[in-house]
Every structure is written in structure tokens, then in C-alpha cells.
Design a protein that fits this description.
Helices cover about 50% and strands about 15% of the residues. The protein has about 250 residues and is α/β, with parallel strands linked by helices. The strands form two sheets. It has a five-stranded parallel beta sheet with strand order 5-4-1-6-7. The longest helix has 25 residues.
């Protein structure tokens, strides 16, 4: 199953896709069993509201995130791996492809770790959306030009976190490197750490962008698109982790 098919299925299992499917099922069922059908439609609408509030979405993401810890407290890692996370294609302000904001913050932290440790960096990310330039190539350019930080290795063939891990291991194992700092978002860290450890690495987690906040306000309970996107991220990581565990169990 290629990444396009896998991602398409995943999108239907995450909000709002799964809620639209539930609502559509309700409409169909209502033709024969009106009460049950209407109940499913109301369930979809209520879930849409709940998942669109920042109060709920932030708490969902916090269940995924590891406890905050300073990665440099463990200075035993031999290299830094920073994961890609998409491309900003044909960016008008730069006149070329570049990295999106989510990847930029990962690169910033990888640069911070490099300056503190002088350990080499591996950038990993292919072109799952069919872009002409791989994510890792763009990541290297940003680290070189904007942060004045060198990149020792580029892994530019992977389309998934699982491939990130396995192809990065092939590169670093050949260099005698097994223990790494792994840089990615806090909500993505559990799945990424599990996958890289399964590939053979010993991982020191270096997560970024924890879900933080102050006391809830009225706005915390009003629906907004950003909160729905965060809830979708929770479903993406939860489903992705379950899928990878199944693959590992099956020896794939």
C-alpha cells in the first residue's frame, strides 16, 4: 500500500472525515430506522463541536506528549536526527520551494542541539506528495543558509515516519552510530521514538512545541478551525501508532 492510499484512508478516519462518514451513515440508516439514523447525525454534530474546542483538543494532545525533559541532560547521543514534515511548494516570497513553519521550528531546535554539543546532524524526509525536491534537501539548505549549521547526512528517500527510521538507521549504522537525539514535535514523539527504536536506534527524545496554556476562558469552549486541526492531529498520531504496532507485530 503506497503512501497516497495510506494517507487517504487516514484522512477519512480523522476529523472531519470520520464525522462526515458518520453523518452520511446516519442519513442512509434514517431511511429505514429514523430514530437510529437521527441519533448518529446528532452524535456527529456534537462530536464536531467538542473536537472543535481548544479545551478538548489541547487535552487530547497533552495525552500524547512525553513529560518535558531537557535533552542535553543526557549527553551520550552520537548524532542528531531531525524529521521532516512537509514542503512549502513554490513559496512566492522566496521564489522556490522551502520548508513550512512546522519544519522550521524543528530545524531551529536541531541547530540549538548542534551548537550545544557539536554532534553531527542527519536530516530525513523524502517527497511523499510528489514534489520535485525532497524535504531533507530543503531542510539541509535552511540549516546551512539560515542557521549556519552543517548537515552531515541527508536521507531523502523516505515517505513515512517508518521509512524515516529504517533508512536513517542504514546510514548511521554504517557510521557506527546507534544512539541519537531525535527532534520532532512533542505530539509526534511517542510514535517517532517507538519507530526509531524498533529500527535499531537508542533514542534520546528531543521534543518541541508542547501544548501549553493558561486557565480556560470562554474562548476555550467556542469552536474554531485550529482546534479541530489539533484534534485531527491527535487522531492521526493515535491511529498511526496503532498501525505501526500492528505492522511490527506482523513482522513488517
Amino acid at each position: 500500500m503506497n503512501s497516497t492510499v495510506t494517507n487517504s484512508i487516514a484522512m477519512l478516519l480523522m476529523p472531519p472525515g470520520n464525522l462526515l462518514l458518520l453523518s452520511a451513515a446516519g442519513w442512509v440508516i434514517a431511511l429505514r430506522r429514523p430514530r437510529l439514523g437521527k441519533s448518529l447525525i446528532w452524535l456527529a454534530l456534537i462530536a464536531l463541536y467538542v473536537l472543535s474546542t481548544s479545551y478538548v483538543s489541547s487535552r487530547l494532545l497533552q495525552t500524547l506528549e512525553p513529560a518535558p525533559a531537557y535533552p542535553l541532560a543526557d549527553n551520550s547521543a552520537q548524532a542528531i536526527i531531525v524529521l521532516g514534515g512537509g514542503i512549502y511548494p513554490a513559496a512566492p516570497e522566496y521564489g522556490a520551494d522551502t520548508v513550512p513553519a512546522a519544519v522550521l521550528v524543528r530545524l531551529r531546535y536541531a541547530a540549538h542541539l548542534h551548537r550545544a554539543t557539536q554532534k553531527p546532524i542527519l536530516a530525513t524526509g523524502g517527497n511523499p506528495d510528489g514534489n520535485p525536491t525532497a524535504e531533507a534537501v530543503l531542510m539541509k539548505a535552511v540549516l546551512n543558509q539560515d542557521f549556519q549549521v552543517p548537515v552531515m547526512w541527508v536521507e531523502d528517500k523516505s515517505d513515512t515516519t517508518l521509512e524515516n527510521a529504517r533508512l536513517s538507521y542504514q546510514i548511521l549504522n554504517a557510521a557506527g552510530i546507534r544512539r541519537i537525539w531525535l527532534v520532532t514535535h512533542a505530539s509526534h514523539m511517542p510514535r517517532a521514538k517507538m519507530t526509531f527504536e524498533h529500527a535499531g536506534f537508542s533514542v534520546v527524545a528531543a521534543p518541541i512545541e508542547f501544548t501549553t496554556g493558561y486557565k480556560p476562558t470562554v474562548l476555550s469552549f467556542l469552536p474554531n478551525a485550529h482546534a479541530l486541526a489539533d484534534s485531527s492531529k491527535f487522531f492521526h498520531e493515535t491511529i498511526g501508532s496503532a498501525w505501526y504496532r500492528l505492522k511490527f507485530l506482523l513482522g513488517r
